[in-house]
Write a structure and sequence with these properties.
Elements: E1 7-11, H1 16-27, E2 31-36, E3 49-53, H2 59-69, E4 72-77, H3 94-100, H4 102-114, E5 118-127, H5 140-160, E6 164-170, E7 173-174, H6 182-193, E8 202-203, H7 204-216, E9 224-227
Helix pairs in contact: 1-7, 2-4, 4-5
Bound molecules: NADP nicotinamide-adenine-dinucleotide phosphate.
Length: 234
């Protein structure tokens, strides 16, 4: 797909990976709608990006937004949806574990309500995470949610062809998802990535490049693209 002149909706497009994907799409001439609960956090955005407010967990609001913006060619969701539980399984707070699945339900809302408005040659991308296939102790919640996201993509892709559906799986990426600052932040990423083949955090732009790849390549569907600095082999 040549994205120039195409209409793209990016949920979670106001921060981190989604914002980087929105900027890369806009730079290539796409007409991008970057969407989140509080789009003002995106700050100043380049020409070609329009900010929209919507909570992916509010089905009525998601449906109304799709009806307002339809039809479109590119649909991306990188919206985290809610909170993420951390901790080993036996000590895990089960309410927190269940709440972590807000990410899956947000993606499911976007996928189910948005797909009928995606053009037949259009393309959809979700974002999971490396723990889906290589969980480290304490990552049970994000591992199981990410696994569910990847299974959702593989299950739905054959049902919605010829529209294409893929998932991008990032490793540890330096984005505003982490609220740590300064030396504490550097130390946290150093520890998280020390055993990876590429021992540093990735950038939002590096993940966005993979989102652009699965959007642009018309022969890729139903698959997962890893951008993880070698996390899966660590
Ligand atoms: N950063 C990493 O290391 C990493 C690693 C693996 C996977 N991932 C995944 O990559 C995706 C993007 O993460 P990121 O690091 O770019 O995070 P981020 O910088 O915190 O951005 C998350 C985006 O999602 C939006 N969002 C969250 N809940 C939402 C909701 N209920 N409705 C609509 N929008 C919502 C946020 O905006 P509002 O708050 O304004 O709604 C924001 O635009 C997530 O799915 C994350 O789990 C990230």
């Amino acid at each position: 797909m040549n994205v120039s002149g195409k209409k793209a909706l990016v949920f979670g497009g106001t921060s981190g990976i989604g914002l980087a994907a929105s900027k890369q799409l806009a730079a290539l001439g796409a007409n991008v709608y970057a969407i989140s609960r509080d789009p003002s956090r995106a700050g100043d955005v380049p020409k070609g990006i329009t900010l929209k407010q919507c909570d992916v967990l509010d089905r009525d609001a998601v449906r109304a937004l799709f009806e307002e913006l339809a039809p479109f060619d590119i649909l991306v969701s990188a919206a985290t949806g809610g909170t993420r539980a951390r901790g080993t399984f036996l000590e895990m707070d089960m309410d927190g574990f269940q709440a972590s699945f807000a990410k899956l339900w947000g993606y499911a809302n976007v996928l189910q309500l948005g797909t009928p408005h995606v053009s037949a040659d259009g393309t959809i991308v979700l974002v999971s995470g490396s723990p889906a296939r290589r969980s480290k102790p304490g990552q049970v919640a994000i591992a199981t949610v990410g696994g569910a996201v990847e299974a959702l993509v593989r299950a739905v892709a054959p049902e919605i062809a010829p529209r294409r559906l893929n998932v991008v799986a990032p490793g540890a990426i330096d984005t505003p998802m982490s609220s740590l600052k300064g030396a504490e932040r550097e130390e946290a990423y150093r520890k998280q990535t020390a055993k990876n083949l590429i021992p540093r955090a990735g950038t939002a732009d590096e993940v966005a490049q993979a989102i652009l790849f699965v959007i642009q390549n018309d022969f890729v569907t139903g698959t997962t693209v890893d951008v993880d600095g070698g996390w899966l082999l660590s």
